[in-house]
Structures are given as C-alpha cells and as structure tokens.
C-alpha cells in the first residue's frame, strides 16, 4: 500500500515538473493523484513538509535560477513570465525573498554556495526497480576542469567549463559526451577537500589555456551501470544503492578509478524530470 501511495505522490511531482508553464490548480493535481480535493492539501504537506503552492513556486524559481546563469540570451522578463509572474517586479521580489538576492545580481555574480544553503530540497519518492548492468567502457580522452571545494559551489565550476567549451569549440556540447568524476562523498569529507572533475570528451589533447582546463583519460575497463532519470539532487540514493546493496551482493570488487557520471542532457534545457544520467561504478578486472 505504501508503494502505491508513493507512486501517487511521485506522479504529482512529475506532473508539476512537466507542466510548470501551465496553471497548476489543486483540483487538477488532486485528480492526478487520485485523491480527494478536500484532503490533498494536507496529504501533500504532510508527505513533503511543504505546501503544494510553495513546492510549485520553489520549483519554478529553481528553474529560473538556472536559466539566469546558463541561458544568458534569455531576458529576465521572459524568465519571469515562464515562472508565471505577470510583472518582472513581482518575480524579482519573489526571487529575492527566496534566495536573498535579485535576479539581475544573481545573473551577474551567482553565489551558488549561498543559493544551495537557501535552497529547500524536497525528497521525491523512488519506487522504480534499480537495474544494474555490467559492461565494458572504452578508453575516453577528456578535457577536465578540476573542482576543489564545497559541493554546493560545483555550479560555479560548471559555468567556467561551459564558457571554455563555447569559446574554444574543442569539446562541443552537442557532439561530445559530458562526464563528472566524483572522488569523495560530500557528506563525509571536509567541504574544502571535496573533489569533482567536470569533463568533456575530446578527440585530441587540448592546449594550455586560461581556464585551467587539463587533459585526462577515463580508462577502459569493466563497469557497473545504473541509469538515473530525474533531478541530480536525487542521485545519491542510486549511488548508495550501488555501494551498499548491489556491490556486496554481486561478488564484484571495485576498480582503481572513481565513480563517474555520464550526463546525457542538461537542466534547464530540459525539465528536471527529463534529465538522464548514467552512473558508472568501475570494477576490477580492467583490460
């Protein structure tokens, strides 16, 4: 019964993410969940710890934050309208109330550490079966921007790497794969010691550059692969499943290379629920 309840709540969240540009009424959402409209408010708040109206607002403002930083060609007025604010002034007030900074100031100088500290993350139930496959990963040359510091500031490094990609054309986003190498669990390492490599596939070594992007190689070898669909904020559960359940039960041993991710698409170019990320766990027996 609980799985069925979880599924209904997950369906509501997915519907919200799929229809952020639409008018989302309690009546419509209660129909999606197959709950009574009279009780849906309390059921949603009790389950997620936030009202449905607040959840919708937070989700729209989160998308707006990414659009401000990663879609520079999009005007603040258009971003405000997409977030369902008729006037830019209303959007600015709501954004500043949520994050303590105006949309214009955030676009000019985004402080992702402060943003993440203010960001309310809601856990969405996971009821899907976790299918793990073992395959061979081919050696891949990558250009890498090394992030060292709080995990909450990774987006600042991502923005720098995107700038390098666009300015050089050496690892075009549309034609080359994007990876992330995670060296530490951010939950247990000191913030200033957290390491994460942001990688773009390249065909040949890149020259020295002002962005401090360097050459590295993801080696050939056996890997366990688990696909994650949805927000990157919710990937921890799958990573923990690989290490805590699948690995002990599989009889496999880890290889001498960190866990890494293959990002198939990017937010806010696609909605968060449409994000596809493959999680790779290197295994022993590399060739």
TrEMBL record:
This protein's record includes keyword Transcription regulation: yes
Pfam families named among the record's database cross-references: GyrI-like, HTH_18
Domain of life: Bacteria
SUPFAM superfamilies: Homeodomain-like, Probable bacterial effector-binding domain
MF term (GO), any: DNA-binding transcription factor activity
Alphabetical list of InterPro entries matching this protein: AraC_E-bd, GyrI-like, Homeodomain-like_sf, HTH_AraC, Reg_factor_effector_dom_sf, SmbC-like
Sequence ranges assigned to domain HTH araC/xylS-type in this UniProt record: 10-109
Sorted UniProt keywords: Transcription, Transcription regulation
Claim: Transmembrane helix is one of the keywords in the record: no
PANTHER family: TRANSCRIPTIONAL REGULATOR YGIV-RELATED
Protein name (record): AraC family transcriptional regulator
Species this protein is from: Vibrio penaeicida
Lineage: Bacteria, Pseudomonadati, Pseudomonadota, Gammaproteobacteria, Vibrionales
């Amino acid at each position: 019964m609980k799985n069925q309840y979880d599924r209904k709540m997950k369906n509501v969240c997915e519907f919200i993410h799929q229809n952020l540009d639409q008018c989302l009424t309690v009546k419509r959402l209660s129909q999606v969940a197959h709950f009574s409209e009279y009780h849906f408010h309390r059921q949603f708040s009790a389950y997620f710890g936030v009202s449905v109206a607040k959840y919708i607002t937070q989700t729209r403002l989160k998308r707006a934050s990414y659009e401000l930083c990663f879609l520079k060609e999009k005007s603040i007025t258009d971003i405000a309208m997409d977030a369902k604010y008729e006037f830019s002034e209303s959007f600015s007030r709501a954004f500043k109330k949520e994050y303590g900074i105006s949309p214009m100031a955030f676009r000019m100088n985004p402080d992702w550490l402060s943003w993440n500290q203010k960001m309310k993350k809601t856990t969405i139930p996971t009821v899907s079966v976790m299918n793990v496959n073992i395959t061979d990963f081919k050696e891949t040359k990558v250009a890498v921007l090394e992030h060292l510091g709080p995990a909450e500031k990774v987006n600042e490094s991502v923005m720098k790497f995107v700038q390098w990609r666009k300015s050089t054309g050496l690892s075009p986003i549309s034609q080359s794969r994007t990876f992330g190498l995670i060296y530490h669990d951010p939950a247990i390492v000191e913030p200033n010691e957290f390491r994460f490599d942001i990688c773009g596939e390249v065909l040949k070594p890149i020259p020295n550059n002002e962005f401090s992007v360097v050459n590295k190689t993801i080696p050939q070898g056996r890997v366990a692969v688990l696909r994650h669909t949805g927000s990157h904020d919710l990937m921890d559960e799958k990573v923990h499943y690989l290490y805590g359940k699948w690995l002990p039960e599989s009889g496999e041993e880890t290889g001498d290379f960190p866990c890494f991710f293959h990002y198939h698409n990017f937010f806010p170019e696609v909605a968060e629920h449409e994000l596809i990320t493959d999680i790779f766990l290197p295994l022993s027996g590399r060739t």
